[in-house]
Amino acid sequence: MTKYLTLIALVLMPINIYAETMLGIDLDIGTWNASIDGEIVSENSPQTLPPINMSTLGIDQGQQNNHFSLSLRHPLTPLPNIKFAYTAIGANATETLSNAIIFADNNYAAATEVTSEIDFTITDLTFFYRIDLAPVSIDLGLTARKVSGDLSITEAGAIVSPKEEIDGTIPMLHMDLQFNIPGTSLRLGAQANYSGNGDDSFSDYIGKLSIVSDGWGLDLGIDLGYRIIEIESSDESSLQAALDVGGPFIALLMRF
User: Fold this and answer.
1) Residue 149 and residue 165 in contact, taking contact as beta carbons nearer than 8 Å
2) pTM to 2 decimal places
3) Helix (H) or strand (E) segment spanning residue 133
4) Alpha-helix runs per DSSP H in the chain
5) Where are the domains of the chain?
6) Helix (H, G, I), strand (E, B), or coil: what is residue 148?
7) 157-199 pLDDT tens trace
8) 20 to 30 A from 174, CA-CA: which of 44, 47, 65, 146?
9) Cα angle at 215 between 214 and 217, to 5 degrees?
10) pLDDT tens digit string along 202-215?
């Protein structure tokens, strides 16, 4: 990752890279009403069986999830700024299967009642540079994204809950665009993190409207927006997935 950060810094050298005159901190804490759509194929599942759809398990409905981010901006221009972000995603439901499935080497017949639960976290560490083109600012950098968690499907009355783990670290390109609407306390924002390799990809897009009140060197406000995460994984030696996790969010923000 270091060599890519160096490359970004070299590319941006002729551009007006914004540096703080003093230490700056951005804090966001919010809730995200995310639904999970798409399908999975369990490891070693026969190709003759259809993928397991999230609607079949009943966990495709929107549920509240939490997210948090903290950015540290500094006046040392050659060094990138740092952002830490954390998102918890979970959903659970009890449903009667409409068709037979195989999950984690366990067979579930049609008309079986099962309780399904997906629970995973996304932890980001982003290194970025800011370009100031007032009233627009652009952050460009790289994100190291850690994804960890599991999916379980438990038959009614069963003692053991078969699980498949979700675990990996993904390097991603990062961009964050902010437009301050002149003469107002409104700010439009768009953020993207993306990684792709052949048939596998991981993307995370955010669009938002910020309402900010500034004074005494402190900005307070709220973010209203929509976030969607798209996951495509085709590795047959592990859990295969084609999932969309998306929905509206609201967050409290603080800048100082």
Assistant:
1) yes
2) 0.86
3) strand 113-133
4) 2-12, 54-57
5) 2-44+61-89+122-146+171-212+221-255
6) strand
7) 888 888 888 888 999 999 999 999 998 999 999 999 999 987 7
8) 65
9) 100
10) 999 999 999 998 76
